[in-house]
Design brief:
By secondary structure, this protein is of the alpha+beta class. Helices cover 23% and strands 18% of the residues. The protein has a six-stranded mixed β-sheet, covered by helices on one side. A hairpin with a 4-residue loop joins β1 and β2. α1 packs antiparallel against α2. The radius of gyration is 19 Å and the shape is globular. 43% of the residues are buried. The mean pLDDT is 94.
Amino acid sequence: MSPRHPPASDVSLTHPNRLYWPDEGVTKQALADYYAAVWPFMAPYVVNRPLALLRLPDGIKSHQRFFQKHAWKGMNLHIEEIADPEDAAGEKLLRIVDFNGLVALVQSAALEIHPWGTTTDHWERPDMITMDLDPGEDVAWSAVIAAAFDVKARLEACGLAAFVKTSGGKGLHVVTPLAPKAGWAEVKDFAHSLAESMAADAPDKYLATATKAKRGGHIYIDYLRNGRGNTAVAAYSTRARPGAPVSMPLDWSDLNDLSGPAAFTLGNVPQRLQARSKDPWRDFFDAAAPLE
C-alpha cells in the first residue's frame, strides 16, 4: 500500500467532526486520515500485538481517561479479544489485525496505542527492546541526543542493531529488533544491565531507577518497557498531549537537526513521509539478531 494511495476502511466514524485536540482543530476524521497516511509504515508495530490503549472519549481536555487493556461495552468488532496464554483466569487482551482495526481504535477515541514488544504469534519471545530516555526538566535536549548515541554504541557492541524515534513526550526511544528466541526475563535483564552500566559509567548524567528526588539534571534510562505485559508507545502513534505530537521513527542522522521531542505532529508527519527518500526503519526486522 503506497502512502499516496491510502487504504480504505469498512468502519464508519460516528461524529467525525468531534474534536480530539481542540486547540489544534484535530477531529476524529483527521486522526483517521492521519493513520491512513502512515499505515504502510506503522502496521508492523501494531498488528497482531497485545495492545494497551489510552482512550479519551471527549478529547485531550476531557477528565475521562481510560487506560484500557481489556474489552469494554460496545467495543467495535474489528478490535479483537485474544486470550493471554499465561493468564490462569482466562482474561483476554486486545489486538488489531488490519487497518479496519486501527480505524476502530480511532472511533473508540484511542489517542495513544501502546503495544507489547512481541506479537501474538510468539507471546513469550519478544521481538524488540525499547530503551526510553526520559530527561529531567533541566536536561538539555543535546544531552538526550548524546544519550541515544550512547545507547546505540552499547547495543552495537553487543551485536545488536539500534533504531531511534521520538517518544512524542519528553525524550527519545532507542529500539532494537530481536530474533524472537530469548524469553521475557532474559530480555528485561539485558535491558536492566544496559541501563545500570550507563548509570555506573556516568552517574552525573544517567539514572537506572525512577527516583524522583534524584531526577534533576539526569536522564532516566527506563528499561521497564521490556517486561512481560509492559508496553511502549507505538511508532507513529499520536500522544494525548497538546500539539498532537507523534512518536516518529527517524534516521540517526536526523537527530543532528532535531529541535526537540515534539517536533513531529499529526499535522506535519504526512508531508514528511511524502518528502523523505526512504523509510528509516525499512530494514528494522531484517536487522533482528538473537539476544546472546
